[in-house]
Amino acid sequence: MKIIEPNEEQIKTIRSILSYQFDEKIADAFIKLPLKISMRLGKIRYVYLNDNRIMTLRPTDFGFTLSIEAAKIILENSDYPKYRVVVKDDVKYMGDVIGIDVIDSDQSIKPGDEVVIISNKGEIIGIGKAKVPGFMMKSMGKGEVVRLRKVLKDEEKG
Description:
The protein has helices spanning 8-21, 24-31, 68-76, 154-157; strands at residues 3-4, 35-40, 43-49, 52-57, 64-66, 84-87, 96-98, 102-105, 114-119, 124-130, 144-151. It is an alpha+beta fold and 158 residues long.
């Protein structure tokens, strides 16, 4: 796929989706960056920053899935605990986060939302999709609360 500079209409589309999915502040933070895109079937499919793919537009629900780099941008431009699920440090996360590992979470998270999983030290552990509302995460016991899509490996952290 050919990577191109987005035109005004495409930037407006990216901004609108990010505003809906997150908020205006997050949308503004992304739009200020030198983004590039690639298209599929005449529609935006991937968003790039410095030749690295940072977001993928899901054709099923028109929301963005995030990369670790996009998660960092979101954390830098949002107040705690917005868009975050804080988990215990001493657990090896592979495929999902369960309720007993949750220390704190954004109470406004809805099932299906993209969330950033961070340790109680504030380090990014990964990104994933919420399976339950944020206000219920700590009370879910051994039930799955977030399906991890991307886990930051130890060598990537350093």
